[in-house]
Design goal:
- With 348 residues, this protein is α/β, with parallel strands linked by helices.
- The protein is built from 9 helices and 16 strands.
- The protein has 2 domains: 249 residues, no CATH class; 88 residues, no CATH class.
- The strands form 3 sheets. Strands 1, 2, 3, 4, 5, 6, 7, 8 and 9 form a 9-stranded mixed beta sheet that branches. Strands 10-11-16-12-13 form a 5-stranded mixed beta sheet. A two-stranded antiparallel ribbon has the order 14-15.
- Strand 14 and strand 15 form a beta hairpin.
- The two termini are 32 Å apart.
- About 4% of the residues have low confidence.
- The protein binds S-adenosylmethionine.
- S-adenosylmethionine binds next to helix 3.
């Protein structure tokens, strides 16, 4: 599947530098605007040199009504580009060492007097207000005591965290009871640490999902697929099955999927090793079946908790109390399936 080679590569080699495009952030964040008023937002995997998350919240600071924006970066993050030259006043040595930074903003005004608030105003603020831009004491690891103190201050965390640490990352957000909207891979839904959060409707997928291009550092090797270099020499990789993991509510997740197929045992086989029917395409879920149904994981991008409950997965059948078996029909092993059940009384 498109982009999956990049996902596997990332997990194996801990290649975590994938920079998110502003368009991807804007098209998701527009569904949650009401959540941010008076809130402290933390972007804790976000070097302001590269991060469009920082850029998005800085530019929209006033329109979202933010109370504070905090961004921290990690010592391992290399320089990919310097679109946002916030650190021009630093010596070249400092710039290449890149000790991690913290940015804290509690206001953004039209300092440049051009009639609007933009990135130039944010740059002005960081250059002229002491304490807006400071060095972290440690390495900027989201698990460090210093970064956890910042997490405690935050209401909502929004970022694209390192894929190789996704399990730990989401567990920490849940442990500290934070609102969040973070980019991840669809397959993480079935992780044993994460699936129970979906089953209890404490986490769900956001509005957009699919295959998206991410900027990568120059040091990343060229690939024959899902790779390109643009006219500015910037390398890009395409990642498959990208989606947003969140606990912020949004309208679309409460919309019922329209179901128009009727159940028939001839059309919907049961698994060889588990008492549920196999539905190969989400659109074919029967409208009149109330037992357990196995569907592809992409179902989760359309899940409405008022219509279905999540019962577990058929994946490896090992190592997870909700992973009951492999998905096998007539001796043939299928891709992983999410097990769902229609809620009684849910609309057709
Ligand atoms: C997928 S990239 C995304 C970067 C940025 N959030 C964006 O969306 O453009 C993940 C970032 O997390 C950083 N990172 C890796 N390990 C980290 C850690 N333990 N703590 C904080 N950040 C980390 C990486 O350096 C990388 O820049």
């Amino acid at each position: 599947m498109a982009g999956n080679s990049n996902l596997n590569n990332s997990a194996r080699n801990k290649q975590d530098e994938f920079y998110t495009q502003l368009s991807l952030i804007e098209s998701e964040l527009k569904h949650y605007k009401g959540h941010f008023k008076g809130k402290v937002v933390l972007c804790n995997c976000d070097d302001p040199y590269e991060s469009n998350f920082f850029k998005y919240f800085a530019i929209n600071f006033n329109s979202l009504g933010l109370k504070k924006l905090i961004a921290t970066c990690y010592v391992g993050s290399p320089i990919a580009n310097t679109q946002l030259s916030l650190f021009d006043h630093e010596t070249p040595e400092n710039k290449t060492t890149r000790t991690p930074h913290k940015i804290e903003i509690s206001e953004v005004d039209d300092y440049t007097g051009d009639g609007r608030v933009g990135l130039a105003d944010v740059e002005y603020l960081l250059r002229n207000r002491k304490n807006a831009l400071t060095r972290l004491k440690g390495d900027g690891d989201f698990r460090s005591a210093e970064c956890i103190e910042l997490l405690k201050q935050a209401d909502i965390v929004v970022t694209n965290p390192p894929f190789s640490l996704f399990r730990e990352y989401i567990a920490q957000l849940v442990e500290y009871g934070k609102g969040f909207l973070i980019i991840g891979n669809l397959n993480a839904v079935k992780y044993k640490e994460i699936l129970p959060l979906f089953m209890t409707d404490n986490v769900w997928l956001g509005n957009n999902s699919g295959h998206y291009w991410f900027a990568v550092p120059d040091t990343y090797e060229e690939k024959t697929t899902d790779f390109k270099i643009d006219e500015n020499g910037q390398k890009w990789r395409r990642m498959g099955n990208i989606c947003w993991f969140t606990n912020l509510d949004f309208e679309k997740r409460h919309e019922d999927m329209t179901l128009f197929r009727e159940y028939s045992p001839d059309v919907y086989p049961t698994y060889d090793n588990y008492d549920a029917i196999e539905v190969t395409h989400t659109a074919n879920i029967p409208c009149d079946y109330y037992g357990v149904i196995g569907v592809p994981i992409t179902f989760m991008t359309r899940h409405n908790p008022g219509q279905f409950s999540i019962e577990g997965v058929l994946d490896s059948g090992t190592g997870n109390e909700y992973d009951y078996a492999k998905a096998v029909v007539n001796g043939k092993q299928l891709y992983a399936r999410i097990l769902i059940r229609r809620k009684q009384g849910a609309a057709q």
